[in-house]
Specification:
Shape: globular
Mean pLDDT: 92
Low-confidence stretches: 1-24
Helix content: 40-55%
Largest sheet: 2 strands, antiparallel
Distance between the termini: 42 Å
Number of helices: 14
Strand content: under 5%
Strand order of the largest sheet: 1-2
Number of strands: 2
Structural class: mainly alpha
Order of helices and strands: HHHHHHHHEHHEHHHH
Length: 325
Amino acid sequence: MASPSFFFFHALLMVAALATTASSQHLSPTFYDKICPKALPSIKKVVENAIQKERRMGASLLRLHFHDCFVNGCDGSILLDDTDKIDSEKKANANINSARGFAVVDRIKSVVDKVCGAPVVSCADILAVAARDSVVALGGPTWKVQLGRRDSTTASRTDANKDLPSPFMDLPQLIQNFNKHGLNSHDLVALSGGHTLGFAKCGIFRNRIYNETNINPSFAMSLRKSCPRSGGNTNLSPFDQTPARFDIRYFQDLKGKKGLLHSDQVLFNGGRGSTDGIVKRYSLDAGAFSDDFARSMVKMGNIKPLTGKKGQIRKNCRSVNSKKL
């Protein structure tokens, strides 16, 4: 019969094992410090080079991380190409002919795997770091990216169509959508502030500039020049007048009824909406916006990550490994 001390020792081992397992399930900003200390500097260099060539790329890389996290968590699923077994999220309504930056991610993956000597950095983590580096490169805040995500082995166009917020949503729908992912109204407004960067296509905001009333008339008129009632669906217009600079112009425009998308303007309703106060604060305080944006980005990056032995580290961000890594 085993002695009481045996059971006590065995229990201690079990507790230690559980503690180790639990800690491995959490993300950490130092995850790659020992296994590949050159990983993050390498990602930063590729991102900065890409943005130097095309300033718009910063907004595109930020958007990829957002659209990845909102569909079954931050797992790199948005990067998977269509196959007999993969129903690519790239074909979802919010992504098709819209999501971009995939070639830059491919370049990052190639460079990072080379400096690390092996595929140890996940595609999901690459998206998270590239989003942060893009914001910093365009004058925005920095934050410690939590790392250690692994990549999914599947994707879902159906879930992408269901879970990605639509540019046509009203405020209650947006709040509900964000709440579903564990994000509150402050996160909604802060993360929507990512629209201080980038452009939208005419087909997405045409109805707003011709049919909506909560829009500045001269603003609507100016947009109609490049967005006719028919045709020109892919013509681009900036979310604000400084689309390559991370600033508070986006929120100032909302106060002037110059939000480009329906889902932008519903965040501010002339002092009567539940998020109006947040918009007002950000429109006056760049520091408050930057701090909250960074905090919400970390929070968003923690949505259902695959860690430990779940998922895999893809060799190619566009396809699932034939053997698990």
